[in-house]
Structures are given as structure tokens and as C-alpha cells.
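INPUT
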Amino acid sequence: MRKEWVLISILAGILFVLSLSVGKYHLSLSALFSGFADDALGRQVFLNLRLPRSIIAAFGGFSLALVGSVMQTIFKNPLASPDIMGVSSGASVGAACGILFLGGSIFSVTAGAFAGGLLAVSLAILLTKAGDHRQLATFVVSGLAVNALAQALLMLLKMVADPHSELAAIEFWMMGGLGSVTMAKAAGAAAITLPALVLILMLNRQVSLMSLPDTEASALGVNLKRIRPALLVLSTLIVAGVVSVTGLISFIGLIAPHLSRLIMKRNNMSAWLLSGAIGACLLLAADMLSRSLSYAEIPVSILTSIIGVPVLIAIMVRGGRLP
Amino acid sequence: MSLKLEKFSAGYRSWQTQKVSLEIPTHGLTALLGPNGSGKTTLLNGMMGLIGHKGSITVNGMQLGAAGSKVLSQHLSYLPQRYQFTYPISVEEVILMGFNPEMRLFERYSRKQRELAGAGLRQIGLESVINDDFLHLSEGQRQRVMLARSLVQNTSVLLLDEPDSAMDFSVRHEVMTLLRMIIQRDLRCGLVVLHDPSLALKYCDRIELFKNGSIIGNIMTAVDDSDTIRQKLSLLYGNIGVYQTPDGHYIIDAI
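OUTPUT
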């Protein structure tokens, strides 16, 4: 195993244990390891709040980053990611519809997020094809258009939402946060996301072949008309499954793949898994900061954006030449 | 093993190549020679099923006109003009991709396939770069790696689109020598799009002269004399001189 893998794994492990400990109700490391023998409240906090929250931070960060790697590979574009392509904002509209029109259960929010995400990515692909799809700018502008449309729809939905319950639920979802994660929600998200994650990893050879120009991939026997939509549906399902419990999480899917390629100097299955591990570290760290920087919890997307925006600018300035 | 086209047309929105018929026998290397924009790449793309096409394409007697990408890739390997990898990728991974046509969707590369990839690289004298980044190789090395990929793809027919376009003089000859060796040793057949008539005369058994989407003549390099070759090449290039050296090679010159 490469030393970079060992270091990132150790870092993820440390962040996970710290994530179990940090918060308004401090759980000491010794209490964690002794099993809360004389602290019943601590035990409750651990089982009902910290454990599901930390699992989802690690799992969600891993999934979003892995999807980012897959998208950047199959679109042959270092800016392709759930955020830039509008999947996340499309998922927000879908989730808002789920909250407004379908009762707001975890299932309706997930189904809404999935449908919205899929519609948004389809629209972004159509717009990109209409322009020069090899240009980074075309990608960004397509995403921008989809994001703008999604924002307009969201405003419309917020206008008709009940200000006391539904509007608050939409706003809370949009800001992203892991504060409301429970074990049941975590299990629900995993039930949707895990099978798609396993399938996408099993298709890693096809993903890798799709890093070639379409003509070459097709000449090597890749059925692009089936594989590309299948990978997009799986990717969107993963994003929808995660964001249905975490709310909107920005930039993890964009920056983790870049960091991984920077470390591995490759774009293969190992690099995608490392990207996932980096994504887990980023979201664990951002979530810990979100609940410890101030008295009120800071929405986690604010923190991931603070890290992500400079990286995005660096990619733009260098014309996408980051690894 | 042979490749046969009968009344084969290909194009994007309209038919840019018109009813092309040609046959390439086993261990034969045929050049497709013609000016820019004449439809040579379009013809290759049509044969690979990458764009619209009609007419008959037969490999070893098997009709492939309506075959999907998977079946086509089991019979035809395609080497494009340029290799556009967006991200770093190891030479071994590039070669392993050649096994895809024979693999199931979820199958992983086996140890035997990795050994064969290494053997393919050894055959072209590049075993030392197996773990290197493909993007860091020279154009000549990239073409040789792609030839190694077509070796593991193990198809009867090799289609190459201007492999000489980005190479300097010595690399161009090195790659063509290697291509000819592979075609003859493994009893395959090859169709290679070229711009340079002297390269085609030196390495190919036959030259199809291509203009405005159609074949307008052909040259049998071992049979035709220099005067016949000059007359036929004039169909493409106008007034040119063709001179034969004492060792049997040709020098082409514009007049």
C-alpha cells in the first residue's frame, strides 16, 4: 500500500474519533474507549447523535468525492462535479418539491432530490453539447445556466411555502448540516447510496475507458449510449441519497478528486478511492468546525465553500491543468 | 484473414464517402492516400461504426455492417491521429484497455492479462516505461504503445489514422517498420491513412488513391513501375516527379 494511502487512512481515522468527541456535550476519548460505563447521558449522545453524524460525515464525504472523480473522468473535464454541473442545485429544487408537495419524509426528499438532480444534469449535458464541449468555459456556463434556473425555481417554491414550517425546512436543507442526522436517516441514505456506490465501483473499468475520447472508447467496445446514462443515474442516485440527509454540501465533489490526482499522479480506481477518503476527511473536518466554531452551528456548506472557492479559482486560472 | 468493403459509404450528415470498394488480403498493408478533407478519416470512422454508414464491411467472411461497438472492436482495432488523455494514466493501464472487447462488463483485469500487456510492451521495446505516465511519453513512444495495445486487442484488422502526423523523420520510419512487422508476423491486415506518398510506397503493399470521397485508382507497389506510379499519383498531386533509387526505393518531388 502506498504511504499516501496509509497517511490519509490514519488521518480519516483520527478525524472520525475526534468527530465522535467534539461538540457541545464533550465526550472524552477515555469515555469513548471505556464504553461510557458511568455516563448514561454520554452514552445516549454517542449512540443517537455523534455516531450517526460521524458515520454520515465520513460516508457522505467519501461518496460525494468519489462521484466527483467519476464525473470528472467520464466528462473528461476537471470542472465536472455535482456542484458545477447543477446536480446539487437541481437536487435542491427536487428536495424542496419533496418537502412542499410530498410531505417531507426522508423518502420523498430523496426521491425529489434524485429526480431534480437527474433533470439538472441532463439539461447541463444538453447545453454543453450545444456549445464546444471541450472548453472548460462551456461547462461552467452550462452549469451556471442550470444553477440560475434552479435558483429561480427555488425562489418560486419558497414563495408558496408555509413560512413557519416548510420554508424553514427548505432553508435548513439548503444550508446543509449534519445536526439532524439520526441512525434511521443514516441507514435510509446508506440503503439508497451503497448499492449505487458498489455498482459504480464495479464499473471502474468502463469509467476508466470513458476517460478516452468518445471515438476511441467506442472503438474499444464501450457501449457509450448505455454506459454513460447508467453512470450518470448511479452518480445522481448517490448524490441524492447523501444530500437527502445532509442537505446541500458544496465543493467536496470538486476539490477532493483534484487533491487525489495531485497526490497519486494517476486517475484510476486507487485515485478515485483516495479521492473518497480525502472527501471523508474534508467533510469530517468541516462538520467538526461547524459545531465548534461558534455557539450556534454554522451551516457546513459555508465551510466547504471557503475551502472550495479558492481551489476552483486556481483551476480556472490554470485552465484546468491541475492534475 | 481479410478485410473487404463493398459499396461502403460513410458520413456525418450526408454521405462524405461514396460507395467505396476495396479488399485487403492477409498480411497486407494498404495505404489510403489523399488530400486533406477527402474523407479518409470519415471512411475509417464509418468502418468503426462511429458515424453513419451503409454498404458491406466483411472481416474474414463475417459481415459487420450492422454490428455494435463490442463486436466491431473484436475484429477491428483503431489507432486515432492524436491521443487525448485528460488525466495522468500509466502505460500499463493504456495497454490493458485493449482487452476490453473480450471482457464482460464487471470483469477485472487478470494477472495473465497484465503479463500479456508486459509482453506486448517488450515486443515493441518499451518494457522500461510500463509504469510511466502515458502523457510524459514522446509522440513516437505513444504510437508504439498504441501498437502494443492493438497487439493485445488481437484483432485481424488494424486501422490507423495518420500515425505519421506528429512524428519526426526517424520515428515515422521506426513506427512504420514496426507496423509492417506486426502485420506480416501475425498474419493480420492493415489499412493506414497516410499523407506522405514516399512513406506509403516504402512500407505498403498497395496504395488506394482517395479523392472527394471515392477511390480513384490504386498502386501495387511491388508490381507497378515508376512511370505508372507517377501517372497514378498525378491524379492526386498533379505534376510530380517519381524517381527510383538503385535499391528500389522511391523519391517523390513536386515539379
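end of record. Chain A has a mean pLDDT of 86.
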